[in-house]
Amino acid sequence: MSDYDLIVLGAGPAGAAAAIKARSLDLRVAVIDEAPAAGGQVYRAPSPALTATQPDADRARGDALRARLAASGAVLYANHRVWSLTAIFSVIAIGPDGPLTLEAPNLIVAAGAVERHIPVTGWTLPGVIGLAGATILLKAHGVLPGRRVVVAGSGPLLLLVASKIVAAGGEVVAVVDAAPRTSWLARAGAMLARPDLMAKGAGWLLALLKARVPIHSGTAIRAIHGTDGVESVTIGPVDRDWRPVGEAERTIAADAVCLGFGLLPSTDVTRLLGAEHRYEPELGGWIPAVDTSLQTSVPGLFVAGDGAGVRGADAAPLSGELAALGVARRLGRGGDLASEITKVEADWRKSGRFGAAMSALAMPPPGAAAMIDDGTTVCRCEGLSRATLDSAIAGGARTLADLKAMTRCGMGPCGGRVCGEAAAMLIAAATGWDREAIGQPSARPPLRPVPLAAIAGAFDYDELPIPAPAPL
Amino acid sequence: MSALYDLAVIGGGILGSAAACRAAEGGMRTIVIEQQTLGSGASGVNAGTLSLQIKRVRLMPYAIKGHELWERAGERVGFHKTGGITLAFNQREADLLHERMALKREAGAPIELITPARVAELEPNLSRKVVAASWCGEDGYANASLSGAYYRTLLEAAGVDIRERTPVTAIDRRGGAFELATPAGPVRATRLLLACGAWLRSAGAMIGLDLPVRARVNTVSVTERGPALVGTVVGHATGLLTLKQKPNGSVLIGGGWQGTGSPDEGRSSVDPATLLPNLRLAMFAVPGLDRFRVVRSWTGFEANVPDFYPLAGPAPGIDNAFLLGCVRGGYTIGPYIGALMGDLIVGREPELPLFDPGRFATEASAAA
Fold first, then answer.
1. Which of A59, A285, B3, B77 stands 20 to 30 A from B111 (CA)?
2. What is the pTM of this model?
3. A interface toward B at CB cutoff 8 Å?
4. Which of B361, B303, B356, B316 is nearest to B41 (CA)?
């Protein structure tokens, strides 16, 4: 019998809420996270050297979350990297004290989201980082990405990152948003329903206006220039479908670029365990198919937070509670779980509207593939340009699996996490195939690259379980 | 009415493609029908090892011919003849090595025993715990992920029709021809070759055969690029390790450790419980691997029958139907035995004997 009823992967707002709720239902719970402390990306704990700095609202929420999780009685394995899982369910991780295997009949995956990249010329230069990466630098380490920063891409992270840079004393020389101003207005309905979050965004915007940061809507980076690092950035207009148009280019001196196009639900774990997925552009792309309590097609495997569809930190705790209720129901725990599930699900769906609207705002339309120049590196690990991938597509590649076999795209250390979306956009642009048909990068262990020695640990050769040799 | 082919091949792996090319060259109007894409099964996901030292004695003549064909394919399949070393780390393994390599040498493979000192000269980064070793200068590797692209070129040049992403859902016999039902419409052919690897059993059932085909689930891992450690193909006396470092610096680790899953489930998975000893064995053989990061492990189906020899010949009791699969060491041997099969189908005497599927009771119900 396993030590736990439930393992939660990820201690961000969704995972922590799931663990706390499950503890309140008297389940035995373990939580695993890669970071040194709970909080996830949005409530990431600052490095100890920074605790004297001015705490903001997110910091206060993060501290409260960490305190509640610690008091809940859930066992937190921080600093643990999960590299493989098997049904039903072994979680295999590497931590500060070596390998760790945990087992439980239920698993809630609250692994959050990863950045969506659209490669532009020069994006591989030092000094170019992701928008989400920039938030980690700023939140956990108080480090500015550069002295003169261009913040570019799409979605609400643009305003968050730019305002944090300004607040930390940096200079943002341009915010470059591919979405036209009208698409923000088109989402106003969902935003007005949440005046509190709207006010948060307005606060960011106000801070940028006050600092006289130029905000270019309907605009994208044409190229990032430099030899050993970023020196300047050329921007230009894009049409409603994000295709570069016109000659009205301008070049801005800068030494850093924060670049990102919204968030993709992190589906590594659910793919590895063979759950069914569907493509839902409004929620960031591929998401696991789930029932009313967020259980996937694999019995006992639940998802919560942005990994179930990007809805943001505000909706995340309710999804965690919902999944915890689902686990309790599956374990046959007492109480009126069914009506609570109905209620929490409704609350979650409502609270998720704002975040989903934000997520949709960041989502590149199909025309965005035109932002990638022929010579631009798409797959960084294998050094493959758009032209190389396009010629494989012309030669018959119709799925990410085909492209991988034909060009090695996605076979490097990133495992397709960085290039998979862009590669799929290129196939879609060339063939008109829908994203479901193009597929996802295949999930294979290890989920992140792991040194052989860390997996192998200490062992005695004579104790290796060598099977009988093959027939002669 | 759809066109009538002389030969329909189910399965676009190395075996099916090689047979189709030979049949087309012999004048047959041929089509290959593949449920996924060319070379996407075992042909494309195996470790690409071309080692005579791990081939079965009786299959050695076929393996030697296979090596020649891959060498001829050269760069198109990423062929490298590096030589290979097989290692034994204790007396039991040394005995096994001596016994097996002697027989393989008799069967024609240019294998010699070498001393641990010679191993250290050839490959200074291998473990110093070697007690016995063998060497074969013919050994090397190719890049299995190029199998599909390579055979696509050959099939197109031979004028073979290719239908991919097309599962065959039923096989009927009408008016002296096979009619294959597919979602894209029926395909008709006077002859039929089943060459669909781990799916041979289910395809065989469509023509009333109960084939004793099972599938092994082999595991392969690859590391990120790293500094040069080894130049040859490294094996283990038991056959449970194959290891080679590609020119780009990544290291490929195989050895036939078993994952989970089955062809009927449609998927297979790495089993961490067998991956662990596989990686430990690799690290023991090449200690400098400890700091290489494993990027990806994956699995593929390798079909076999109880005697672990190929199924290659006429389908028992069914005129004009043929079976080809379950070739142990199929990546190496596939191009050659596939061509032999093509010869048989066009009515030529194959250069080397094939492996009659009729040696098993298949209870042909002649339903087709």
1. B77
2. 0.92
3. 84, 86, 90, 92, 272, 274, 396, 399, 401-402, 404-406, 408, 411-413, 415, 442, 444-446, 449-453, 455-456, 459, 461-462, 464-467, 469-472
4. B303
